Amino acid sequence: MDVVRSAARRILDEFRHDHRLSPDSLTSAGWEGLPGAATPATVLLFAARAVLQVRQEAGADLREVVNAAIGDEGERAGMESLALALVGDMAAARAARRRGPRALESVVALLAALIELEDVSEEEIDELLAHAASFAAEEASAGGGTGTRGSRRGSEVGPWDEAEAGWRTADLIDLGGLRIPRETGISVELNEGGTPPRLLAVTVRKEGTALQIQAYHSSGEPQWEGARDRIARDVLSRGGEAKEWSGRIGPELRCVIPVEADLMGTRHMSVLMLGCDGPGWLLRCTVTGSDAESGAQETWAYSYVEGVVVVPSYVPPARPSFSPTGFGLTPVPPVQGPIPLRMPG
Q1: How many C-beta atoms surround the C-beta of residue 304 within 10 A?
Q2: Strand partners of residue 276
Q3: Which one is predicted more confidently, 10 or 145?
Q4: Parallel, antiparallel, or unpaired: how do β-strands 160-161 and 309-310 relate?
Q5: Banded pLDDT at 257 (limits 50, 70, 90)
Q6: CA–CA separation, 215 and 275 (whole Å)
Q7: Chain-centre distance of CA 153, in angstroms?
Q8: Nearest to 44 by CA among 26, 57, 56
Q9: Burial (CB count within 10 angstroms: exposed 0-12, middle 13-18, buried 19+), residue 280
Q10: What's the burial of 278, exposed, middle or buried (CB within 10 Å: 0-12/13-18/19+)?
Q11: SS3 labels along the chain
């Protein structure tokens, strides 16, 4: 990776000196290999993302950061869209990708402007690029390239399947179809649904955040993409907003939903929809409260979901049923639909 990092540094220095990139640099940077390859372009992209995320997590408004970094007012709108793409807005990222290698020049221009704004030293630039190169190599080896941890699900991070080994030493609450992390300061409430009513979801609360978790059987084909589309259409039909975002666990929806009107007018609630496909299951999580409003990825809700274990083989205890012979209890086998839960015991 030293060669890739050095090439990224040369491209950055070229822009800082010439305020443009040569055709050779645009060609050799490897923009066309995105996503999924460790190239100079990937290193520069992750470096710009890292600087923006540090500012964002410190409470800075992304638009204000771009306005401070970019002096030309005519360039700001394009740079704001690019900044959104870098921190996870998937629609903005698709638009940037359609621009081809020229989008790389904008990434480098934004990175150079942020470096100047933050008064970053030459040594700190080298450290930033080394960190970005390491991250790019990890993502490439995992087959990712999106900057999320979703590509490493089941090997390095959760949510876990019951057959995987990564959760074995964790302290978990056994709820049948789900096992959830046992933590100080949380409250746990099981939620009923269906006919007849069954325990199908669990809501975990900590401080100002509520996290509802529900798992579903699936055919093995990825289900979360289609579920996201349906959720987004429903939110939009109710006059809300839904943005597809590249988050810590993978693609997610960041929604703003209108709720009951009062004397002050219609109120709006931020809702973060997380999802993850596993072997024969789909996990869906709904986050409300402070973690949904923050926009940051290093929050309790994300880390808690990464500790969840899905148990698709769980079969609830047999319940009384009528049969032609009138004898016995009939066990309920796993079926398509929600994976049932039980009270902890």
Answers
A1: 22
A2: 283
A3: 10
A4: parallel
A5: very high
A6: 10
A7: 12
A8: 26
A9: middle
A10: buried
A11: CHHHHHHHHHHHHHHHHHCCCCHHHHHHCCHHHCCCCCCHHHHHHHHHHHHHHHHHHCCCCHHHHHHHHCCCHHHHHHHHHHHHHHHCEHHHHHHHHHCCCHHHHHHHHHHHHHHHHHCCCHHHHHHHHHHHHHHHHHHHHCCCCCCCCHHHECCCECCEECCCCCCCCCCEEECECEEEECCCCEEEEEEEECCCCEEEEEEEEECCEEEEEEEEECCCCCCHHHHHHHHHHHHHHCCCEEEEEECCCCEEEEEEEEEEEECCEEEEEEEEEEEEEECCEEEEEEEEEHHHHHCCCCCHHHHHHCCCEECCCCCCCCEECCCCCCCCEECCCCCCEECCECCCC
Q: Are 43 and 32 in contact (CB under 8 A)?
A: no
Residue type, 247: G
pLDDT at 202: 97
Q: Cα(first)–Cα(last) distance of the chain, in Å?
A: 50
Q: Which residue has the higher pLDDT, 195 or 270?
A: 270
Burial class (CB in 10 A: 0-12, 13-18, 19+), 82: buried
Look-up of token digits 């999320």: 148
Amino acid sitting at position 54: V
Region 329-337 average pLDDT = 55
Counting every residue, how long is the chain?
Answer: 345
If we measure between CA atoms, which residue out of 142, 301, 125 comes closest to residue 208? 301
Mean of all residue pLDDT scores within the chain: 87
| Tens digits of residue pLDDT in 198-249 | 899 999 999 999 999 999 999 878 999 999 999 999 999 999 999 999 998 9
Cα-based distances in Å from 177 to 19, 226, 342: 57, 23, 8
Q: How confident is the model at residue 175 (pLDDT cuts 50, 70, 90)?
A: very high
CB atoms within 10 A of CB 210: 18
pTM of the model: 0.83
> 209 is written with which tokens?
């955040």
